[in-house]
Design brief:
Elements lengths: L4 H16 L22 H7 L3 E9 L18 E5 L2 E5 L5 E8 L2 E4 L3 E2 L7 H14 L1 E8 L5 E5 L5 E8 L1 H5 L4 E7 L4 E2 L9 E10 L5 E2 L6 E3 L3 E2 L8 E10 L10 E12 L5
Parallel strand pairs: 15-17
Antiparallel strand pairs: 1-2, 1-9, 2-3, 3-4, 4-5, 4-6, 5-7, 7-8, 8-9, 10-12, 10-16, 11-12, 12-13, 12-14, 16-17
């Protein structure tokens, strides 16, 4: 019987294929993925987040990475931004500055800045207003990274990059808006009794009232001991001040502490004519 050559070759071919096949080994473990960076908040979240913090300048560089020294004229008080109800306020400059703002996508648009007209003896501090103003007006790129200390980065069209660190506002810390008050602080403190602080000196304070036109109304009461502190205010003996403050109601207050917290908003009047 004749056997075709095809029939003889087929088993050989199959055997050859079987001999060259190898059993795959165990798969190599996958490399761990790096942790994802914090997600950037969406525009509506950014608009809600900005007013919750004071934004203090940490870094400022030009397009080539050079530090902008002119923006750090006050090493102890960095330039600060505050956002509230569509208004941007700039402080720790020579003059207080401010303008309108709007957020659309990743862009912050700041309107024309206005400022007070006080002169400063320090030439670098006097020049700070202009250095800040020319870098904040107009359309700025905006990036916000959330975290324990949030970071706000602004960039202008010429490549300047400003990085701000956020610290919670008093309203954020105390869980709600405060009550505006006007307090007159007498020029001199007086000894006052406190069970935990021997030889304590108390500010002498009374509350004032103003109408919608900024005029005093009513008759203020007598000065009395003020046992609390006013965040942001340092009393100078011999100087009488009228302060605009925000008063916040504290939560979970210890039995020996005041239920209120006072935060300085601005000094309305200051009179140094009194003698210590």
């Amino acid at each position: 019987m004749r056997i075709s050559s095809l029939a003889l070759l087929l088993p050989i071919a199959l055997a050859a294929c079987t001999g060259t096949m190898s059993t795959p080994g165990p798969a190599a473990p996958a490399a761990p993925e790096p942790p994802a960076p914090p997600a950037a908040p969406a525009a509506p979240e950014i608009a809600a987040e900005l007013p919750r913090f004071h934004w203090r300048l940490q870094e400022a560089t030009t397009a080539d990475g050079t530090r902008i020294e002119a923006l750090f004229a006050r090493a102890d008080k960095p330039v600060q931004l505050d956002f509230d109800k569509g208004r941007l306020a700039v402080s720790n400059t020579c003059n207080r500055m401010g303008g309108s703002y709007a957020i659309a996508g990743g862009t912050l648009t700041v309107g024309r800045m206005a400022s007070t007209m006080m002169a400063c003896a320090d030439a670098k501090l006097m020049a700070l207003d202009g250095e800040v103003g020319k870098r904040l007006e107009g359309a700025l790129s905006l990036a916000l990274v959330a975290g324990e200390t949030p970071q706000l980065t602004l960039g202008n069209t010429v490549g300047d990059r400003l990085v701000f660190a956020g610290t919670p506002t008093a309203a954020t810390r105390y869980g709600g808006p405060g009550e505006r008050m006007f307090l007159e602080v007498a020029a001199q403190t007086k000894p006052c009794s406190h069970p935990l602080i021997p030889d304590m000196q108390c500010l002498q304070v009374r509350e004032l009232a103003y109408d919608d036109h900024g005029l005093k109304v009513g008759t203020p009461g007598a000065f009395g001991n003020f046992y609390d502190s006013i965040d942001g205010y340092t009393h100078e003996p011999g100087v009488r001040n009228v302060l605009r403050v925000q008063r916040y109601t504290r939560r979970d207050v210890p039995a020996d502490a005041s239920k209120y917290a006072y935060v300085l908003d601005m000094v309305v009047e200051s009179d140094a004519s009194a003698t210590p």
